[in-house]
Amino acid sequence: MNTVKGIRIMLVDDEPHILQFLEIGLTNEGFEIRTTPDGMSAVTLAQEFQPHVVILDVMMPGVDGFEACRMIKKLGFNVAIIMLTAKDEIDDRVKGLTLGADDYMVKPFSFDELLARIQARLRNQFPSLLGEVIHGPFQIDDLRKEITYQQKVLELSPTEYELLKFMVLNHGIVLSKSKILDKVWSYDFGGEENIVEVYIRSIREKLNDKEHRLIRTLRGAGYRIDLP
C-alpha cells in the first residue's frame, strides 16, 4: 500500500454502483480517491484535486466523457486519462485518443485489469511516484532497490546499488572519489579511497562496460557516467 501513497485518482461515472465499486477497490489499494458523477463537475474537481489519473466514463448526460477529456487536458497539468465505455467501437477509441486520452477500456472490465492499466500509466507518466526513475537505458526502482539496465535487472550488492544510483542520477557530472565516499559510504568511512575503484570495476563488469564508454575515468578528477 505504501507504494501508491499520495497518488491521486479521480473517478467520473454517472452510475453510482460503478463509482462505489471502484472507490472501495482503489481506496483499499492505497490510492487517494475523489469521485464525481458528471463531466462538468469533473473538470472543476480536476482543477482543484489535480489527479494523477482520471478514470472517465464516456457516456454521461450533458458534458460527455469526450468533452470532459478535452477540457481536463487543457487545464495544463500532467494527468493520465483512462476512458471507459460500454461501446466496443473503433471510432470511439480513436476519438478518445485523439482528444488526449491515454488509454481505453470497454465495460464490463475486471478490476485487476483496470489496476494494471493504472500502474502502467503511472510508470509511463509518473515513474518517480512509484519509486522508479528512468535515465536513458537505466531504470532505478528505489522501493525494490533494483536497477535495470537495457531491460535487464542487474545483480548488485547494496553498496553497488547505492553507488550506481548516485552516478546515474548525476550523469554528465564528474564525481570525485571523495564526493562518492561522502555520499555513498558516508562521512564516517575510515577506509581508503581505492575502495571506490574496486566497486567501479565490479559495476563495469556487470554492465559489460569493458571499454569504459559508459563509466568514464577522468584521471585526477574522478568518474562520470555518459548517457545517450
UniProtKB/TrEMBL annotation:
Domain Response regulatory: 8-122
KW DNA damage (keyword) present: no
Assigned GO CC terms: cytosol; protein-DNA complex
SMART domains attached to this UniProt entry: REC, Trans_reg_C
PROSITE patterns xrefs: OMPR_PHOB (PS51755), RESPONSE_REGULATORY (PS50110)
Annotated region of DNA binding: 130-227
Keyword Transcription in record: yes
Keywords for the protein's UniProt record, in alphabetical order: DNA-binding, Phosphoprotein, Transcription, Transcription regulation, Two-component regulatory system
Any single GO BP term: regulation of DNA-templated transcription
Gene Ontology molecular functions: phosphorelay response regulator activity; transcription cis-regulatory region binding
Residue ranges constituting the OmpR/PhoB-type domain according to the UniProt record: 130-227
One Pfam family from the record: Trans_reg_C
Modified residues (4-aspartylphosphate): 57
Designated name of the protein: DNA-binding response regulator
